[in-house]
Design a protein that fits this description.
Blueprint (H helix, E strand, L loop, with lengths): L5 E5 L6 E6 L4 E4 L8 E6 L4 E6 L2 E6 L5 E4 L21 E6 L5 E6 L2 E6 L8
Antiparallel strand pairs: 1-2, 2-3, 4-5, 5-6, 6-7, 8-9, 9-10
Length: 125
Amino acid sequence: MGRDEDFLFLGQDDTLNLYVYDPATKKTDQLTHSKKWDLRWPSTDHKNQIVYEVDGELNLFNTESGKTTHISIDVPTDAVAMRPSHISASNAIEGFELSPKGERAVFVARGEVFTVPIEKGRRGI
């Protein structure tokens, strides 16, 4: 592929793919061959690389070699959602009952079963 060629983002079939057009020969060649997902947001470094997204994944097309390389991205997390925390279940009670002798109450909230003593005793899950 030479420098006089233009790279195009077209949907000639059912999906959008990357093509190259040579104005001298008026020939268009398909460079990527995605059948299920559209190639989206192509962007170039104006040298020899085009980055694009397909199916939520980033890929890098080298215009000199004609090869595509997957770009792996690792996003670190501080795992806030996985940290232990106390969340009140009082607003999420789905059901409740008293024990047969009336010594404990049973509550269902947030997918958990909680038992609570009426007067004395230990709470439990």
